[in-house]
Amino acid sequence: MIKRDRAARLAWSAGCAFYLAHVAAAFEFRHSWSHAAAYAETARQTLDVFGVDWGGGLYFNYLFTLIWTADAVYWWLAGLDRYRARSRWVARPVQWFFAFMFFNATIVFGSGTAQWLGAASILVLTLLAASRSRRFRVRSSEIRTR
């Protein structure tokens, strides 16, 4: 379990680092480090997809960046056991928000291959989560009956 937790923490941190590099590259090469340019581009994409000229979705991206970075840093500072023991009231909203952002990035605003890979990833993760949830309920009921 410890080996798997360490591997998961490394993968999570590497994913966060790659995401931060993606954000930096987008701001450097696409938006010239301008919030206004990023907001305008987000508004244009939202207009194309939903017919609404609104760039406020950019703030969801800022929040996503803050949460992922804070979560990765907390995992290293708190340690494996404390991170695993964190409240479900903290862990679940983070996971749902990440799923929401991933869905929007790949399926709603993505195109071509990204949409197909996003849909396949979401399907696999949904099935995995359902399987884990079912196993957890079975184990919990076994423990209660002992």
Please summarize what this structure is.
This protein is mainly alpha-helical and 146 residues long. Helix content is 86%, strand content 0%. The chain has helices spanning 2-30, 35-50, 57-78, 80-84, 88-108, 113-145.
- Would you identify the regions where 5 or more consecutive residues have pLDDT less than 50? none
Number of domains: 1
Helix content: over 70%
Number of strands: 0
Notes on the structure:
- This protein has 146 residues and is an all-alpha fold.
- The protein has one domain (2-110).
- Helix content is 86%, strand content 0%.
- It is built from 6 helices and no strands.
- Helix 1 packs antiparallel against helix 3 (57-78) and helix 5 packs antiparallel against helix 6.
- The radius of gyration is 18 Å and the shape is globular.
- The two termini are 24 Å apart.
- The mean pLDDT is 91.
